[in-house]
Amino acid sequence: MAKTEEELAADLAAAKAAQFAGMTAIELDIDQVSRVASQVDIGPDSGAVYEAGKLYVPAALASAVSAADPDDDKPRLLSYAAARRFVIETGGVTVNGAEIDTSRDSQAMITGAYAYSQANPSEAIKFKAASGWVTLDAATLAAIATAVGAHVQACFATEASVAADIDAGTITTPAEIDAADWPA
Q: Smaller CB count within 10 Å for the chain: N or C?
């Protein structure tokens, strides 16, 4: 025999009660959940569930989530600014018309080649660029290393300025972070 609507509703309510047993329900809108998630680890492995305007969290997370400020967007904005800096920092730089890779690996390789060239200034340095093999002298390698270092430092300086503006409340959106004076 088929169940009535009332019986189905009761079964659904019982299943939900079982699913959320031992969890604390905190009323938050979806934007607030995003802000809380930037302050407390409530990722997919945490057991937290958002449903119908409530964030259900395991008892072990309840006090941390309750202590988080759901209206504080600063942690999310600071994370966004750091991610923006990383993308620009590792996105490359042009030096004397040549595109230079500024990934973290490339930064390390350039630093090593520069250090070697300083210890051996008369030796030609073989380096594999994105365009193929190149031979660099110490002065050219110094120019590249200096340009890469300046690019990286400019990225961090911009992030520091953006972070200060986020803390001061003068930057309040990701669009304002994007509009900051990031290095080209």
A: N
Q: Where are the beta strands (DSSP E) in the chain?
A: 23-27, 49-51, 54-58, 93-95, 98-100, 125-129, 132-136
How big is the CA angle at 177 (ends 176 and 179), to the nearest 5 degrees?
65
Burial class (CB within 10 angstroms; exposed 0-12, middle 13-18, buried 19+) of 96: exposed
Give the containing element (helix H, strand E) for 155.
Answer: helix 138-168
Residues in the chain: 184
For 122, the token pair is 């008369």
* Tens digits of residue pLDDT in 32-71: 888 888 788 887 788 888 888 888 888 888 888 888 887 7
- Reported as a single tens digit per residue, the pLDDT across 118-132 is 999 999 999 887 778
Q: What's the rounded Cα separation, in Å, for the pair 33 and 26?
A: 10
For the chain, the structural domain boundaries read 5-67, 74-178
In this structure, what are the phi and psi dihedrals at residue 30, rounded to the nearest 5 degrees?
-65, -35
End-to-end CA distance of the chain: 70
- Concatenate the DSSP letters of all residues of 74-122 into one string: HHHHHHHHHHHHHHHHTT-EEETTEEE--SHHHHHHHHHHHHHHHHSTT
